[in-house]
Amino acid sequence: MSQRPALFPVLLAGATLLLVVHGLGRFVYTPLLPWLVEDGVLTVQQGASIATWNYLGYLIGALLALRWHRVAQIRRSLPWALVLHVVTTLAQTQTESAEALSAMRLLNGIGNGLVFVQAPSLILEWLARHRRTSSSGLVYLGACVGLIVSSFMVSLSNGVLEGAERWWPAALLSIPLAWWGWRQLASLDITPEVTPATAAQPRSGRLLDRASTPLFLSYAGAGMGYILPMTFLPMVARLQVEPGDMLVEGSWLVVAVATLPSPWLWNRLGALLGDTQALRLSYASQLTGVLAALLIPGATGILLCGVLVGGTFLGTVLLTQRLARTLHPHQGPRLSAALIALYSLTQLAGPWLTGVWLTMGGSLHSAFWLGAGALLWGLGWMLLVPRQT
């Protein structure tokens, strides 16, 4: 009973850090991009390229987290990753050239990748000690709230700020939130040597077997499948929707609102259906959303895509992390880092392939077929993952 009061501040701290690095770091770029293009700071092609640099940084951060997977290493590297986020976000307020912004987004992505792996991993290990892992998905509420905060910040500052100045709200809000979130996690009572299995973890190098390999291959599809609508949906809305429609400026808000209940919803579905069955449903939902944007013209397709992809992609993340830990309970943070590294590698390919497609004369809208194909791949491999209860 004494453990329950301590649960909320720990989850809130983790959620706050994800809000900072994901909402104010990564995904604030999505609603900002159309305005940066309109301000003449970037072209659409440069915007896609800069997104790719950010996702490369995220991959590097996840690989560093794979290297620094022990609790003691997380305690040392996590605060520096937060500092990197804050410094680069502040630097973006002074960055006008596409080349300099690419460098800042690369470094910001490194901080994001480290924090997105290490903060939930640290909390998951703490929850496992207290036999409360079913609550782990609630940490991702921070990313959901971050999407809403980023959407409102960009909308409210439009007309007041322009160009590189548009980064100021995200930079100023990041500082107190990052400081508070780390202060809470720094005091968690976790030691690197909790159990003999944990102590032996560095010698246990096998992550892939008959059960887990299909899960990894499926998750590769999830990375590319979600990143295209989550990066370019506002731009597609501007190109597809009638001028004056609320989705021209509000498509990202639709995505953000749809994400808000998703950690609780997919946590609950995982408990009711089993994580494997819930994951299959999540892939089918995302695939339906991307196909809606491709096959249903105008506002209806954009709306369905925003709701279905926004309300599902974090569920895929949390269910995959939890299911993988069930398949390999001795792996802990190392397993989480490996999954996120794979996820970030395939999502890195999405904006890059989109940029190549645009230079070949293709449209941004038709590039969504890449996402649909990737999600179909993911769903197919999920059917081969053993069902867990």
What can you tell me about this protein's structure?
The chain is an all-alpha fold and 389 residues long. It has a single domain (4-382), classed as MFS general substrate transporter like domains (Growth Hormone, Chain: A), CATH 1.20.1250. It is 76% helix and 0% strand. The protein has helices at residues 4-26, 29-38, 44-67, 71-92, 98-129, 141-157, 168-185, 196-199, 212-240, 246-259, 262-273, 275-295, 299-310, 313-327, 333-359, 368-382. The two termini are 26 Å apart. The relative contact order is 0.15. Residues 192-204 have low confidence and may be disordered.
Quick one: overall form? globular
Mean pLDDT across all amino acids:
84
Q: Architecture, CATH level 2?
A: Up-down Bundle
Domain module count = 1
Sheet with most strands: none
Low-confidence stretches: 192-204
What does the radius of gyration come to?
A: 20 Å
The fraction of residues assigned to DSSP E strands is under 5%
Q: Could you please say which CATH topology applies here?
A: Growth Hormone, Chain: A
Helix/strand order, N-terminal first: HHHHHHHHHHHHHHHH
